[in-house]
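Following up on my earlier message about zinc ion. Here are the inputs again, as you asked, copied directly from the submission form:
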Amino acid sequence: MKIAPSILSADFGNLERSIKLVKDAEWLHIDVMDGHFVPNITIGPIVVKGLRKYTKQVLDTHLMISDPAKYLGNYIEAGSDRITFHIEATSNPLEIIKMIRNTGTKVGISIKPNTCVDTISEFIPLIDQVLVMSVEPGFGGQKFMTSSLDKIKAISALRDKFNSELLIVVDGGINQETALLCKEAGANVLVAGSYVFNSNNPSEKIKALR
Ligand code: DX5
Ligand code: ZN
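Thanks, got it. Here's what our run produced:
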C-alpha cells in the first residue's frame, strides 16, 4: 500500500519542516482548490514549485478546480509528477487526458461521493489512477463515507478487465480502520491528511497505515 500524506493538514508556516516529517511516504498529495469547484481556496503552482526543491517524493496533484485544462500546464511545469482532475469539472475528459499525457505526466481522474463509476469507466484503459473521494471535496478532517467502498470494488473489477496497472487512490477520512476497509475493497494508494499530520509522530502513522 502506498501512502500519500495530504499537505492540506500540514503547517503552512513551515512547509519544509512539515514535509520532512512525512519523508517516509512514497508520495505527497497536494490539494488544489479554487473557491469555485469547491468552497475553499488552497494551493497555486508557485507552492508546488517551492516544494519540488525540497523533496524527491512523487508530487501527486489533485486539482479540485473548474476548467482544469486552463491551469494543469502550470502545475506540471511546477514539478507535479501526477495530475488528477475531476470528471465533474469538464465536458471534455479525453482532451485533458491527452494534454497531461503529452507532457509525460501520469494522469488520474477523480469522482466525488455522489458521482457514479459509470461516468469514468470508458477512460479506465487510458489513465494511470482513479481517485475515489470518500468525503465531499473541500476540507480535511471529515468522516469517511462507507458508500465509497462499493465504488472502489467496482473500479477494482474494471482494473482487472481493462487496465491491470491502474492505481486506485482513496482520499478523505482515512485512518487505521478505514484504511483496512479500503485495502479489502481493492485500493492501492491511501491519501491521509489529518490522521498523519495531527499527530506527534507522523512517521508512525504512515507506518500504521502501510
Ligand atoms: C479533501 C482533500 C483531501 C483531504 C483529506 O478535499 O482532497 O486530500 O486533505 O484530508 P483527511 O485525510 O483529513 O480527510
Ligand atoms: Zn485530495
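One observation from looking it over: The radius of gyration is 16 Å. Hope that helps, and feel free to reply on this thread.
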